[in-house]
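User: Here's a chain of 263 residues. Predict its fold as tokens.
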Amino acid sequence: MFRIRKNWEDFKSRLKEKQNAAWMNFKSKLPENAQNSLDKFEDWYRGYKETALCEIIETVVFVLVMVIIIRFYVGEIRWIPSGSMKPTLVEGDRIIVERYSRFFTTPKRGDIMVFYPPSTQLSRKPLPLLARLTGIKCKDVAYIKRVIGLPGDTLEIKFNKDNSAYVYINGEKYEEAYIKSIYEFSPCKKDENTYTLATGTLANCGPITIPEDNYFMMGDNRGYSLDSRYWGTITSDRFVGRAVAVFWPIKRMQSLPRLEDKN
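Assistant: Prediction complete.
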């Protein structure tokens, strides 16, 4: 063990010497005024490295970078602000949203997804982008709904005489045991132009053919959900991640497994 450690220290020492030699060789080729400026900067930097401020800044930067890496590649925590996903998720639930699967697969029917709706304009400016990556003071509004329609599907909502309603996908009834009630669907109007209507107005029942790379999202509480029936489908680049578990409150702790494939 001692020999391995000594070899490692020797390797680092030789590497540092090579780096210093390369740096000195680089500086020697610069104009004299540039060399003087670099010498002054090096003197300042050596003093700065010994200050407490340097340690604080490096710690903050490290934490921010780790937060961004974890949130972007692994997952994040969200809370449920409304009852649009009842009874699966209720107001105040804290959920875990995984983000790694989006690098390997597309959303499946029945997945509960966090996403940015069309009304949320995603700014690419540095501060809003940093806020979105870290979750600190992020003002971008995100929704959570269930994937119902996949790219290429023809989706329609049909009402029966007893006022119950079902989703039909490619002409077949789609059984949904998780929704709050088959009798509490929002009123629908067969008009393809109703996507832009506001909450409380008639929704689009279809039939709707979902474009490539688009998804039709609906809340489990069909009578209290502003979803794709009102504002249309979303593209895959607006997905944040898939909800996989409720971890708080403790009495509601549960996993949110994927449903069986019903394509």
